[in-house]
Amino acid sequence: REVTANNRTLEARMRESRSEIEALRETLEATRLESLTDALTGLGNRKSFEESLRKSVDLQSASAQQGKPASLIVIDIDSFKRFNDLYGHLTGDQVLRLVAIVMREHIGQKNATLARFGGEEFGIVLPETDRVEARAIAERVRIGVTGRELVKRSTGESLGKVTVSLGVATQREDDNAVSLLERADACLFAAKRAGRNRTLDETEVENLRDVA
């Protein structure tokens, strides 16, 4: 009877230990996810963006052999400072959330990383996505944002449309995370210079240079 009682006590302690270990794992996972999440928009943060971009670049060789390089989209909200200056930071936060919502609605790839990596800057890492596909995704996001009317929650006042500019770059064999981001940024800046509220990829930027 004593041995049986001791065995039952030991089994109970083991079950309790397993429960504690599982609870600890869940807590660690929740902490990890929190460390990779932008609190305002619920998208990935800069750390998440940079980690995902590095991983995609590391897989480039295998992807390139299959003819499916990774692509990167960078997004910047047009005239964002004006929203903050005219309507306050709460409205500016509303604009950021609106862009995040549209990004989620129009990007269905499970392996895509959606992130806010700067003040009004967003990024989308698209593994195994060529230039044409990536540009089409970027354009869907742009149109989706312009299709929304911003309304001030406290008064119901219409604040007009929000627009975004987007740059798209597709990975090359000699790319690293920094060079890919630099090329996507260059496309974004070209879109800004060309009048904002537009998507430009590398081929289009090169064509603009040729015309100039």
Features:
58% helix, single chain, flat, alpha+beta, 212 residues
Helix-and-strand structural type:
alpha+beta
* SS element count, helices: 8
CA radius of gyration is 23 Å
- Biggest sheet: strands side by side, in what order? 2-3-1-6-7
Tell me about the largest β-sheet: 5 strands, mixed
> Roughly how much helix do the residues carry, as a percent range?
55-70%
Classify the beta-strand content into a percent band: 15-25%
Query: What is the end-to-end distance?
Result: 93 Å
Shape: flat
- Average predicted confidence as pLDDT: 87
Low-confidence stretches are: none
Total strands: the figure is 7
Order of helices and strands: HHHEHHEEHEEEHEH
